[in-house]
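FAQ

Q: What does a record look like?
A: Structure on top, sequence underneath. For example:
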């Protein structure tokens, strides 16, 4: 877990100065920030307002996926809309039933927006604002005639206010035998259980505007503190999502693969690395931003066999797999012997989209053996990467907006 916490810390410090934490903490909004490049697409920042709303401590939330707040009555269609928005790298605003730490459900307006790097247009993070929805319920008489609309907050309700356009629950006295025509609130206000709860709770226009304003404020803070590092970010893509950049959905799929590997773009002159797994970063000691864009042979050094490197490059140019033994160097310049397996990855149309390089440190038994053919652990990684790339290339691509 320590290695993932290090990745989470680098997720922010690679993009912003450390002053960004204090600035974000001062914002009054309920929000989280996630990183699609880290395994599991975890939360890397949670605001004080969000923690208070949900009842969690920061340590309980950081490093976890947002699924932890869902429950048995969370609307699956809303969840699928969020996933599709991540896949297409676009904004999304949906009503969502989530659960607090004590198990109590609550409705909120979930507004998510991608954060783009200005230099290359890739998504660096997602910001998600959560605005509690004030539930309005219709109270009717025994005849079914609507008398009043009641505004219901998490801490109680204000009767007698006429409120339009919101989540409604009808509580009629004729549903409760023996109570006559009185208004019944107790069970209705304290629980989201029962047939009278609607599948989707609609937010008011004011709540939607509040969420949009919060997103704008958060993006402004991130943009300001990215200027101080020179790694500028924006709420909109400043250049087209061109060759060599991975969509967020593919990063999330690749993040589920636990072994050490990189994905390279063979169609560019220096064949740069466009994705590096968490295990690769742990093995080599580099951070993600230090690896992305580097040549795929950047781990080589003084004693690395150049003929072996030529064999790897030749296999890539020929579109063929190969397996070799290499002497590589970590960031601290300590050397290690590794088995490298390189394989082409084709998209759904059959064209080579990437090459995957699976890097595993050799043990003593492997150093004495033959590496002319890949090991099963290498092939399993290649298979998983191929599935991820092909499944994404068959679906809709990222939004160009």
């Amino acid at each position: 877990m320590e290695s993932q916490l290090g990745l989470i810390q680098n997720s922010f410090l690679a993009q912003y100065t450390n002053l960004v934490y204090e600035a974000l903490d001062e914002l009054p909004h309920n929000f989280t920030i996630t990183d699609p490049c880290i395994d599991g697409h975890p939360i890397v920042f949670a605001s004080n307002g969000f923690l208070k709303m949900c009842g969690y401590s920061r340590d309980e939330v950081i490093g976890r996926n947002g699924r932890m707040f869902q429950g048995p009555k969370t609307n699956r269609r809303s969840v699928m809309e969020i996933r599709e928005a991540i896949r297409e790298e676009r904004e999304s605003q949906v009503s969502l039933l989530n659960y607090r730490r004590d198990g109590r459900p609550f409705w909120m307006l979930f507004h998510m927006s991608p954060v783009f790097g200005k230099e290359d247009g890739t998504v660096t993070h997602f910001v998600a604002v959560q605005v509690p929805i004030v539930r309005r319920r219709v109270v009717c008489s025994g005849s079914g005639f609507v008398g009043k609309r009641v505004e219901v907050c998490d801490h109680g309700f204000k009767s007698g206010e006429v409120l339009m356009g919101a989540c409604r629950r009808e509580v009629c006295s004729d549903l409760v035998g023996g109570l006559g025509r009185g208004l019944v609130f107790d069970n209705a206000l304290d629980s989201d259980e029962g047939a009278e709860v609607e599948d989707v709770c609609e937010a008011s226009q004011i709540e939607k505007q509040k969420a949009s304003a919060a997103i704008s404020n958060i993006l402004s803070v991130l943009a300001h503190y990215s200027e101080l590092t020179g790694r500028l970010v924006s709420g909109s893509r400043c250049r087209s999502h061109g060759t060599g950049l991975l969509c967020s959905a593919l990063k999330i799929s690749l993040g589920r693969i636990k072994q050490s590997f990189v994905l390279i773009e063979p169609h560019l002159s220096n064949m740069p690395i466009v994705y590096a797994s968490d295990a690769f970063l742990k093995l080599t000691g580099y951070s993600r931003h230090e690896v992305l864009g580097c040549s795929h042979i950047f781990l080589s050094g003084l004693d690395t066999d150049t003929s072996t490197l030529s064999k790897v490059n030749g296999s890539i140019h020929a579109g063929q797999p190969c397996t070799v033994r290499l002497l590589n160097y970590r960031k601290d310049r300590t050397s290690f012997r590794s088995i490298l397996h390189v394989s082409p990855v084709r998209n759904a149309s059959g064209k080579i989209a990437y090459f995957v390089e699976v890097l595993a440190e050799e043990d003593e038994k492997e150093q004495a053996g033959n590496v002319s053919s890949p090991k099963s652990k290498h092939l399993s990684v290649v298979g998983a990467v191929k599935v991820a790339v092909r499944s994404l290339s068959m679906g809709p691509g990222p939004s160009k907006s």
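Q: Is there anything notable about this one?
A: The first strand starts at residue 31 and ends at 34.
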